[in-house]
Design goal:
434 Repressor (Amino-terminal Domain), 229 residues, 2 domains, ten-stranded mixed β-sheet
């Protein structure tokens, strides 16, 4: 387990969540996504740290770096814990209403490499997870086939942040337009590189590298988290 993951585990326990699944439910996240951050399988970044910091009442900077923004004085709270002062809220009735909904794109059967036609066909809508609630243009896709198993299974939902820069090793949905007037094909894969000549992606099952001419690439968007919706 990484030090960052261990700090997240400590913050969760201090916040009163005995199990990781309890914290995931409180955050409105898929449990497997949260567990992957807490057990160190996947690193969480600044945007996720902000969400965790608000929920667990800790400094996101501490979650990421293990350092305090200011030196803690005598009688200060344990490392990473923010002194919020005495409670000043009032318990009211549960709020009734809906948050932001985002579309889920996809089709029932994918191609050989799990690709599907990204023609704007909306399968249904789901509630946006907290990490994407304020992201303009956020959407989700339904995975077709098992080409990315065990990372993503057939029918699993990938939640996409189209505004976040993509780095090597990230999981992405790439839209490839092979015909000038045709609808793009969508691929859920692992990002390797994208330059002026080609886009290179990786899949797991079977292990395979996919290469696309740069001029055919319509978009490459970051998958923020995934799970069953």
């Amino acid at each position: 387990m990484s030090e960052r993951a261990e700090r997240l585990r400590q913050a969760r326990i201090r916040a009163g969540y005995q199990f990781a699944s309890d914290a995931a439910n409180a955050l409105g996240m898929v449990a497997s996504t949260y567990r992957a951050h807490e057990n160190g399988q996947n690193e969480f970044e600044h945007s996720e740290a902000e969400v965790y910091g608000r929920k667990f009442n800790v400094d996101p900077y501490w979650l990421l770096s293990g350092k305090e923004r200011q030196m803690a004085g005598e009688g200060a709270a344990p490392p990473g814990i923010t002194d919020a002062g005495p409670p000043n809220g009032t318990i009211v009735d549960n709020l009734i209403g809906q948050g932001k909904k985002i579309p889920v794109f996809g089709q029932a059967v994918g191609g050989v490499d799990g690709e599907f036609i990204m023609n704007g066909n909306v399968l249904y809508e789901v509630m946006a997870p907290p990490i994407l609630a304020e992201v303009s243009g956020a959407y989700a896709v339904s995975v077709s086939g098992d080409s990315m198993s065990p990372r993503y299974d057939d029918g699993e939902i990938c939640f996409v942040d189209p505004t976040r820069p993509v780095r090597r090793g990230d999981y992405v949905i790439a839209q490839i337009r092979l015909e000038e007037d045709g609808a793009p094909l969508a691929y859920v894969k692992r990002f390797v590189r994208h330059n002026t000549s080609e886009l290179v992606l990786e899949q797991f099952n079977p292990p395979k590298v996919l290469r696309f001419d740069a001029h055919t690439v319509h978009s490459v968007h970051y998958i923020a988290l995934a799970g069953n919706a």
